[in-house]
Write a structure and sequence with these properties.
Layout (H helix, E strand, L loop, with lengths): L1 E6 L4 H4 L2 H10 L2 E6 L7 H10 L3 E5 L13 H8 L4 E10 L12 H17 L3 E6 L2 H10 L7 E3 L6 H9 L2 E5 L9 H9 L5 E3 L21 H12 L3 H15 L10 H6 L1
The structure holds zinc ion (2 copies).
Amino acid sequence: MYVDSHCHLSFPELHADVARIRAAMRAARVDRALCICTTLEEFETVHALATTYDNFWATVGVHPDNEGVAEPTVDDLVERASRERVVAVGETGLDYYRLGTRSVADMSWQRERFRVHIRAALAASKPLVVHTRSAGEDTLAILREEQGGRVGGVFHCFTETREVAKAALDLGFYISFSGILSFRNAEDLRAVARAVPLERCLIETDSPYLAPVPFRGKVNYPSYVPWVAQALAQAKGVTPEEVARVTSLNFERLFALPAWVPTTEEGRNAR
Ligand SMILES: [Zn+2]
Ligand SMILES: [Zn+2]
């Protein structure tokens, strides 16, 4: 009944453990997950998860924090975005959180990479999975300039302000909340969550990072997404079941997926 809209099962610390992770998902009633790509080099591993298991889907993109990796062209992304079970372009966006000795002006390569992803998403008619950290204004400005609203998508692991959330919603994007929503010091983010209509919310783990309370600081898994649902339910004053139901429908709508018919693992293998 729950969907993890953003996880990194291709990362070595999770990939070696997929069978156990899937068993934990079943026990936690986490039906589906979207496996997120962060480099072209890892795409085939991400894609194989989605073609092997009928409740996993994949994206294609190069994360803004990744340097020293293959730089994607529009064609690289469009070709992969058009493969079966690839439902979005990303994760892509801007991250000014770890500038180090650099200035925002030095990050033009990141902005150019983001533009390439938006052009690919438009060419492939697939929504965008947007990562933005300490860069809300530039992220929104580039999305507007490149007409990213024509395909829409999701601002994932949202940690920006209510104003950025409103502007993203106005552009037609969804807002995805992670385990950060359950952290004791995240009252500002809970205020943002209260202001975003549930019909425009997704939930995610961003595993292996950002485990929700009570697992904070440990390795995160898709099976922990009910704890994110609970944090969102508490912030909004609704039941976790309602959060699960509506965010699952939102996931289907955003990524153009058919209504999910749960099957047993035996049935799944037999398909
Ligand atoms: Zn991210
Ligand atoms: Zn991510």
